[in-house]
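name: query_chain
kind: protein
chains: 1
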Amino acid sequence: MTSEDFPRPGADSAQAPGLGERPPAERGGDPSQDRELSLTDPKAIRALAHPLRWALLEALSQAGTLTATQASEMLGDSPANCAFHLRTLAKYGFVEEAGGGRGRERPWRRAYDTMSWRTRQDDPETSQATAALEQIWLDRGLGRARRSLTSVASWPETLGDTLGGSTSRLYLTPKEAEELYTEISKTFLRLTGPDRYRERRDPKRRPADALPIEFMFLGYPVLDLPPLPDADEPDVGEADEGAEPSGPTSPA
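structure:
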């Protein structure tokens, strides 16, 4: 999964301490460069595995900048609680001050454009932190998808039937699955970024009729299928028609 607003679970990350990425001040301030956070520190990962902190990052993606008071109005939480969690996000490099204001009226913005982490971790502590973060990410993303896809009648009429969902099941070797997933991911990235619609990260530069459209790309093995029937057992339809039925019978 890759976009400016969503993480990339399973992506290869630079094996560096902390977030694995230099802070924006060290990048020369070039706005044309995507700032990617590569999560490797279990403390940072666990700090992000909190529903309100994740909601704050999503709200900042939508609004561009927010004060704790504005965030509280968007999310229905208290300004004090939002201020505390914004400071925690700043501590681990997820948000930064946007300049101006004091106290709870300081505006904040995200300190990254894209985020990634490795799903499989050798270190138990990091593995547990990653599992907690992925639970938050999936709960919010799939929850939004479920609410929207089961409420198509409430979509703007201008969308018509142009969006929706589909599921395809293929039987692939692990190598084939990896190759197909990589190919689809690269195609999606080529079509959506990094420069296409970049300026619309600023709410003021979004067209009047622009809608927040979310795309989720998932690839996974199905783990709960029932086992196939034994090929050596005869099919019920091919049983001997003259055979006596088993079990008790009713008198004639």
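note: The two ends are 66 Å apart (CA to CA).
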